Amino acid sequence: MAPKVPRPGTPVRGSTTGRPLLAAMDLLGRRWTLRILWELRDGALGSRALRDRCDQMSMSVLYARLADLTESGLVRQDAAGAYELTQVGAALNLALRPLDAWARRWTADLLE
């Protein structure tokens, strides 16, 4: 049985071996996960501010995703209790920037 939070080296959706990329895709494919990571790209946010930026997602989903991201080492709470990206989480956001640029280009192409 797969663990609650996808981890490389353990079975995940799409991979019985837990290939790192597929483990990451399983984690990132969870509802609201990418949005939370994206909203934290410019710095720490408290849970209410984060929820406001995420179109008023339910607090239960927000806390479930934050727990997943914390367990995965992508997010942590700072001394004030706000959520922020870890070094690995910030590196992931840098990796997502080219995908964001592609999505903007794709949007522009569709609107032409």
Key descriptive features of the protein:
single chain; 112 residues; Arc Repressor Mutant, subunit A; two-stranded antiparallel sheet; 5 helices; 2 strands; 54% helix; 5% strand
CATH topology: Arc Repressor Mutant, subunit A
Using the 3D structure, state the CATH architecture. Orthogonal Bundle
Strand content: 5-15%
Total of DSSP H or I helical runs spanning 4+ residues: 5
Contiguous runs where pLDDT drops below 50 for at least 5 residues: none
For the record, give the distance between the C-alpha atoms at the N and C termini, rounded to a whole number: 47 Å
Order of strands in the sheet with most strands = 1-2
The radius of gyration computed from the alpha-carbon positions, rounded to a whole number of angstroms, is: 15 Å
The number of E-state strands comes to 2
Biggest sheet statistics: 2 strands, antiparallel
Strand-and-helix sequence, N→C? Answer: HHHHEEH
**Helix coverage percent of residues?**
40-55%
Shape: globular
Number of domains: 1
